[in-house]
Amino acid sequence: MSASIYIKNMVCDRCIMVIENELKKLNIVVEDIKLGEVVLSKELSHIEKNQLKHTLHTLGFELIDDKKTRIIEKIKNKIIEQIHHQAFHQKTNFSEILSRQLNHDYNYLSNLFSEIEGITIEKYVIAQKIEKVKELLLYNELSLSEIADSLNYSSVAYLSNQFKKVTGQTPSAFKLNNENKRKALDKI
């Protein structure tokens, strides 16, 4: 009988590879793995669970046991997936996506997120979008207009204003400043 475990701070494909390798080292059989969730072939024993918790902790991950924290991680992972790992091209309505994919009313998800994280889902989305803008600026492959378009900003001016509000500097100043470091996605 398969069982799911939930892991905090899984934000990219590299995280999936790291978790998969560590589970193999612990002889834990994986049926499926995606951001924040691993489906195992069987329930973990108490000893296996403790070993896994220790291993994950040393790598900067965390096993999630309570339902509310699992929901929060699913919200974060869906937002990260939409912003960092998928082509935008169409208007993204996060409230619809989250409600549909997590099978909960958006008001419930929004209130829970705000209660536990101390910020709104909307501010979290903005923070993730700004990190994506930073990444694209540093790659230097797209113009600011192309970046605004790819992330569904209504205009370059709106993107620039939001960027400055969040980072304290304009996108062009950010590009010129070599000391800027992007935040790790799990630190946003």
Could you explain the architecture of this structure?
The protein is α+β, with helices and mostly antiparallel strands. The chain folds into 3 domains: 3-65, 2-Layer Sandwich (Alpha-Beta Plaits); 68-119, no CATH class; 124-187, Arc Repressor Mutant, subunit A (Orthogonal Bundle), CATH 1.10.10. The chain is built from 9 helices and 4 strands. The chain has helices spanning 13-25, 46-58, 67-84, 94-102, 106-117, 121-139, 144-150, 156-167, 171-176; strands spanning 3-8, 30-34, 37-40, 62-64. A 4-stranded antiparallel β-sheet has the order 2-3-1-4, with helices on both faces. α3 (67-84) packs parallel to α6. The longest helix is centred in the C-terminal third of the chain and has 19 residues, at 121-139. The model has no long low-confidence stretch (mean pLDDT 89).
Give a quick precis of the structure.
With 188 residues, the protein is an alpha+beta fold.
Q: Please provide the count of β strands.
A: 4
Q: How do the helices and strands follow one another from N- to C-terminus?
A: EHEEHEHHHHHHH
Calculate Rg over CA atoms: 18 Å
Q: CATH H-level name of the largest domain... which superfamily?
A: Homeodomain-like
Question: If helices are DSSP runs of H or I spanning 4 or more residues, what is the number of helices?
Answer: 9
What top-tier CATH class of the largest domain fits best?
Mainly Alpha
Shape: globular
Counting structural domains, the number is 3
- Class based on secondary structure composition and strand pairing: alpha+beta
The residue ranges in which pLDDT falls below 50 over 5 or more consecutive positions are none
Q: Proportion of β residues?
A: 5-15%
Mean pLDDT over the full residue set: 89
Portion of residues within helices: 55-70%
Query: Major β-sheet, in short?
Result: 4 strands, antiparallel
Across the major sheet, the strand order is: 2-3-1-4
Assign the CATH topology of the largest domain.
Arc Repressor Mutant, subunit A
Oligomer: single chain
Ends apart, CA distance between termini: 36 Å
Q: What is the name of the CATH architecture of the largest domain?
A: Orthogonal Bundle
